[in-house]
Amino acid sequence: MEFGLSESQEILKDSARKFFAGECPMEEVRRLMETDTAYDDKLWAKLADQGYTGIIFPEEFGGVGLGKVELILLMEEAGRALLPGPFFSTVPLAGAVIDVVASPEHKRKYLEPICEGKARSTVAILEANASWNSADLKLTAANSRLTGEKFFVTDAAAANFILVVAQDGIYVADAQAAGMTISPMSGMDMTRKIHAITFKDTPATKIGNTSNLSKAFDVATAALVGELVGGMQRTLDITVEYAKMRKQFGKPIGMFQAVQHHCADMYLETESSRSAAYYAAWALEENVPEASVAVSIAKAYASDAGRTVGNRGIQVHGGMGFTWENDVHLYYRRAKASETAFGDSIFHRERIAQRVIDNETTSAKSALK
Amino acid sequence: MDLNLTPDEKQFRDELRTWLAANTPKDWPEWQNKPLEESYPYLRAWQRKLYEGGWAAVSWPKEFGGRSATLMQQSIFWEEMARAGAPPMANSLGLGLIGPTIIAYGTEAQKKRFVPKILSAEEIWCQGFSEPNAGSDLANLQTEARLEGDHYVVNGQKVWTSYGWIGDWCEVVTRTDSGAAKHKGLTVLLVDMKTPGVEVRPLKQMTGESEFNEIFFRDVRVPKENVLGKVNDGWNVAISTLMYERGSYGARLHLIFKSHMSRLIELSKKFQRNGKPASQDPIVRQKLAQAYAEIEIMRLNQMRAFSRMTASGVPGPEGSIQKLFWSELNQRIQQIAQEIFGPYGQLLGDDPYSIDGGAWSYGYLRTRGNTIEAGTSEVQRNIIGHFVLGLPRSY
């Protein structure tokens, strides 16, 4: 049993950290977040050059064929850098969905361009009722034409094609498809844009059914937790650095136990989230029976921890933490958006309860998960 | 990263599993709830049996009767012990904390004299660290040891000594140089509890029982050769013992918490809330699920810490996270239990309506001590702040 990273995993994580530090420093994050899509062609091409856009996908479709643990490590570093734009939406979300539900022909058509860095995508899931239960989905498809609306779709304006979860399956609609209107929703996290999409008889291609969707969503959820961990780590690092440097009453504020204890709790919550994220990734990779519970444990814990680490980080910074120029609030905004994405802690605790109190292995109520 | 068992770990597990299946006493459930005074000979006999099978201290080096087990094998050991429903061992402080400290700091003669009898439970050990004026500020301890010829003469008082009433020997931290800085003048002595001048008194705690003792030393003569480590280097010896305490204990705790949790889930189906089983109440479900998640995370944190410790070779300040995490989690679990049981939660073991023989009302009170013993939560946070995060010392 070895819970440490292997040498190649360490190398991947380390080079990802250096890559993001070099290619996506905070000035770049701040520049991109002021744009409509937070997307940048040049940055995307570099991500593809690194193999990141195909990291977990089969080599026959242009992927790199690495495992879920490697994906989570990459997401952790992306989270630390607060990587703006459609990476999460395209790779661990849309890519994972295509990889799980689609036929080889459809993978050739949709997954391959993602791996090669030629296409961005996302998955439209939630509707006005904001429910993660598939039974609550209303969007319908008749003769491969979609009608309905989707909310909170991440990075839709940067996508070349959009995956749509309808009652009877997963569809792909081209970004230019007739009858589809993408309008921005104004979210807290400026680095990852969200959109409402209306469909009126929009032509779309069915690529699979919803029965295996939860598998892909587990991958996306674990990836999001990995990203949260990176954000928490950066928040902690910035905060500790500040506490060592900022002086009040003639001493660094990090000398005061009230401040130290905030930092200690941030550390505990960050490390605990990391343990849960790594384990969830490993469980998914190995297909262990409790993999879904491991994902829920990670998301339940990290959804709360992402917020509380941010709370403490801002508090320790004092007035400086409340300013626009300080980066902590940018991570705090991302953490808030990620908190509810793919189910908040209340959602996942109920999912855990169904498994450990009711002993339900599959729940009819939440087939999506 | 690979959480599957290696062939070595599998072999270790299978050998242990076979041994436990053949040797675990079947009558432990009948003894389990008896007072420790009564069950102690039973636990000694059980440890003796483990010792004879070579299983009493798997973490110890082979030359001292252990199996040089890796940290992962140690955690397999506790998992298998729990799985088999095996009783605990009598000499837990000796095996877990004091034995390893003697192995690390002892002279050849000390190792030869003390270690085998720790292993066989022939001599039970206790730990004389805290004093009335030296709790969190352990280095402030005042128990004095004065060299007179070839003996140290010890005077002072220790508190919160577990197993003091049954201890044959005690690891005592004393002050040997009152002129030096407070961390620098300490020396660890190995004290025979039968020496004239040693007096043990029970310390009645808020649970009503006396798990701990006070020990008084009046002109207690300890031979010079019983100094553990170097004279005036006792702080480092003591810290090493405390590191073992914080680092290794967590390994088996998640198993205990897990079994408490299973029982609590079972009970939540029997207790009513708003005319329905408490297990169907959405808030109760949320709280149980959160506790379940945190127990799992505690296990994962422990495994990650083990991997780090295996790489670095020594228990480090990361043990403080485990201590902080488990002690506060244990209190939350007991609080959820109380919320599920309502007024029944308060009933003590001698009440016919008490739940599980009063185990939960006891647990509720007992867990208040968890965030105090073995370093308060505040001290653990100080350690994380200073030693892990590099913040300036606050005191």
Q: What is the fold's blueprint, element by element?
A:
The complex is a heterodimer of chains A (369) and B (395).
Chain A: H1 7-23, H2 26-33, H3 41-49, H4 68-81, H5 87-101, H6 104-115, E1 121-124, E2 140-142, E3 145-154, E4 161-166, E5 169-174, E6 180-185, E7 194-203, E8 205-208, H7 213-245, E9 247-248, E10 251-252, H8 257-286, H9 291-317, H10 328-340, H11 345-356
Parallel strand pairs in A: 1-4
Antiparallel strand pairs in A: 2-3, 3-7, 4-5, 5-8, 6-7, 9-10
Chain B: H1 7-23, H2 28-31, H3 36-52, H4 71-83, H5 92-105, H6 108-119, E1 125-128, E2 144-148, E3 151-162, E4 169-175, E5 186-192, E6 198-203, E7 212-223, E8 227-228, H7 234-248, H8 250-268, E9 272-273, E10 276-277, H9 282-312, H10 319-341, H11 359-366, H12 377-388
Parallel strand pairs in B: 1-4
Antiparallel strand pairs in B: 2-3, 3-7, 4-5, 5-8, 6-7, 9-10
Helix pairs in contact in B: 1-4, 4-8, 5-6, 5-7, 7-10, 8-9, 8-10, 9-10, 10-11, 10-12
Order of helices and strands of chain A: HHHHHHEEEEEEEEHEEHHHH
Provide the CATH topology of the largest domain in chain A: Butyryl-CoA Dehydrogenase, subunit A, domain 3
Give the name of the CATH architecture of the largest domain in chain B.
Answer: Up-down Bundle
CATH class membership of the largest domain in chain A:
Mainly Alpha
Binned strand content of chain B: 5-15%
Outline type of chain A: globular
Regions with little confidence, pLDDT below 50 for 5+ residues of chain A: 362-369
- The count of DSSP E runs of length 2 or more, i.e. the number of strands of chain A, is 10
The greatest inter-chain interface is formed by:
A-B, 48 and 49 residues
